[in-house]
Amino acid sequence: MTKLTLGSYPHMLGFEQLERLLERTAKTGNEGYPPFNIEQTSDYSYRITLAVAGFREEDLSITVEDRQLVIRGRQRDDSEDRVFLHRGIAARQFQRSFVLADGVDVGDAAMENGLLHVDLSRAKPESVVQTIQIRKG
């Protein structure tokens, strides 16, 4: 059986990068922690909200690496001097990745009530009409 790719369709020219992007997105390996929401806040802006209860701002890092938004969290384990009778809240680390389309920029990030908000914006696309002259051969 032959794998169908975007390049196998004769009318889909130049979409190889999109195909690689889809494959990379499928491989990000995001698990279910921490839970998150993605909202469209206007026609050209978005907000990603992660539930990061127990994390401080200094426990979190936000980077953009090769058109990929990466949010990492690492809590300090300060349990050496504490005695737990039950430990249901674990200090754990995480990494969440979101692939960004060309033209999407990361704006501000803010913490509020255990939620990390990351704002994204996309430039309004310009309508371009190009006329191609036919030269005589």
What is the helical fraction, as a range of percent?
Answer: under 10%
**Which strands sit side by side, in order, in the main sheet?**
1-2-7-6
Based on the coordinates given, report the CATH architecture of the largest domain: Sandwich
- CATH topology name of the largest domain: Immunoglobulin-like
Kindly report the average pLDDT value.
Answer: 85
Broad shape: elongated
Secondary structure category: mainly beta
The DSSP helix count reads 1
What is the CA–CA distance across the termini? 43 Å
Name the helix and strand elements from N-terminus to C-terminus, one letter apiece.
HEEEEEEE
For the secondary structure, the number of strands is: 7
CATH top level class name of the largest domain: Mainly Beta
Radius of gyration: 21 Å
> How many discrete domains?
2
The profile of the biggest β sheet is: 4 strands, antiparallel
* Weakly predicted, low-confidence segments: none
> What is the strand content?
35-45%
